[in-house]
Here is the input.
Amino acid sequence: MATQVVMPKLSPTMEEGQLARWLKKEGDKVSMGEPLAEIDTDKATMEMQALSNGVLRKILINEGESAPLGQPIAIIGEPDEDISELLKTASTPKPEKAAQAPKSMPESDAATPVEVEPQEAEAPEATQPISSDGQKSRTDGRFLISPIAARMASEAGIDFKTVQGSGPGGRIVKRDIESAIGDQKKTAATKPAVGRISIPRPAREGVVYGPSAYRDEPVSEMRRTIARRLVTSLGPVPHFFLTIEIDMERAADMRHSLNELYPDLKLSINDLIIKVVAVSLIQHPEVNASFQDKTIRYYEHADIGVAVATENGLITPVVRAAELKPITEVATEVRALAERARARKLKPEEYTGATFSISNLGMFGIEEFTAVINPPEGGILAVGAMARKPVVREDRIEIRQTMRVTMSCDHRVIDGATGARFLQTFKQIMENPVYLFLDQ
Amino acid sequence: MPVMTMRDALNLALKEELARDSSVFLMGEEVAEYQGAYKVTRGLLQEFGPKRVIDTPITELGFAGLGVGAAMAGLRPIIEFMTFNFSILATDQIINSAAKMRYMSGGQFKIPIVFRGPGGSAYQVSSQHSQALESWYAYFPGLKVVMPSTPADAKGLLKSSIRDDDPVIFIEQERMYGMKGEVSEDADFTIPLGVAEVKREGTDATIIARSLMVPIALQAAEQLEKEGISCEVIDPRTIRPFDINTIVESVKKTNRAVVAEESHPFASVGAEISAEIAEHAFDYLDAPVKRISGADVPMPYAKNLEQLAIPDVARIVAAVKEVSYV
Here is the structure.
């Protein structure tokens, strides 16, 4: 039976997509899962997959044209099938505004695998009452999942909302849960025990980290009051800012010596900052957290968003579990992510779901600035330029390499003292970076 | 074990049961002198004589009624319908008398009768002679309904039906009389009613098929195996009482079910099976139960249309792929 292909939701914030390139022509055979087109979203150029088998009967929008989420862009059907009904309904674009992720879905989860938001991905047949019901339920934010898949997910403790369905209309089926269980086992095997890690451990080679695990704790009455009061004055995310100056002599030395040892690495100060922020976050889990209305979510790992300027604007690829990765790995990974970001090739799961972010304008000579928090993260660190400055050390004026960082905190989660203690740790390690190599 | 046709296996069952129990007798159109319209009763008149093998006039309601009366009086009649299409004329006796007599007499009468004959599609005998009526009879409490798919099953199930103390509708498939298979010559070989058989074991999808659909489902399974999909094929063999457990256990393993049947789709036995699976194995399903049925039209006479109206290997293969999401 013929189905309409609609503009899918390819990123959590996408509202419309521009058709970059059709990968199939009218009359081509397509099978489920095969790339159909490249879509420019607000963040990246993404491949869109076919969700049914058949022949690409009709292309409804040309390359370069845009369509809002849910608008039919093509029709897939049997070669000789009558598609006039579908063509008729396709010409009246559907005002499908309900493309937002369901409310109950934690945003950090939304980041994970919702590459093709299944709910909107396939328009149902116009003539079948069951399908049009399905359409309604999908826009209500319901998930399509087969009973056995739901049962397996619940037995394995998998939140199926984070699983992408491969069945018709994006239905989550058994094989999707099976592969999610496989992934979970892989991660579980390498995850250190929950709790405070005061000394960074090296990551095992070849491990790929997904978004951090977390625990949700109820918001205390006091925090609730703080949150309620503060947002009346500054909202919806009440920012406050803490600035600290850091002596960078040793960090700069260390960078030089590492680059002498590994010339190809081209380690930057920013790589070092990412690593130190991650290690400091693990020592201050109250800062590696996000406000979730009724609960505060504490993350197990430091997934660091690194702001990258591209021609099209700002994007923050995420270094997952940065506290576990050797500095060399962080450096390589950041470089690869930044390159992919500039080429607009990042997948949504690569630029969403950070637990904390870093923005660095040092390369532009900016001495200090404030950055805006990317919700639901609890904070962001704005990093200024390293500069040689006169400083007072042991009652003498010396010229030293210094750097000023300003942390923006979500006051609903982080209090002044909490943020300050975190920055103290950050400063301590930054000024004594040899700490990073303990236990390695 | 000797290989014989389904026709000969049925003949053997009749012969053995006529010999075993003198209260068994056979009655129907052309069963005696003509040796049976499909030669299922060949040689029986010669062996058991005209009191045990009786030709009737073309009066289905009449001889079905005679059969019910004989059963009430203690005999064990086997009533042959030349085809089940003609049983439609006898439904008052089958449904209102045979099915209900035991209940309405408070158990004073048992009705050990078998109504047998070919059903389903044949070759170009058109709308009035190509009907699968099992869902009609299975609907009524008091009737058992049996549909064999192999010569061995035909023999074992017919013998059990004749020995059963309740009325049994025994539907053979007209196209399958020539089908060959190994059959036990043991006169005590029977197959209990109400027990399904796994005709082929598999892990990825369960195909539930009966009668003519069994060999077709097995061919489909063969083809799917080559494409990496392992199918379990289950033949319920008895439609009433229905062995849902074997099917549920299979679906728990495979998580997918396709029901193939020759009959029309609406209110069919397949609809019942589909509902039972949803009821008993809901939590194990990975896809909606898929039904493959005969076309929802009177059977066309034209050969090409007739072929399209009966489920074939390709449709079953496509259905299994659909529920397997490939």
User: Anything to note?
Assistant: The first strand of chain A starts at residue 3 and ends at 6. Chain A has two domains: 3-142, 214-437. The radius of gyration of chain A is 24 Å. Chain A is about 30% helix and 25% strand.
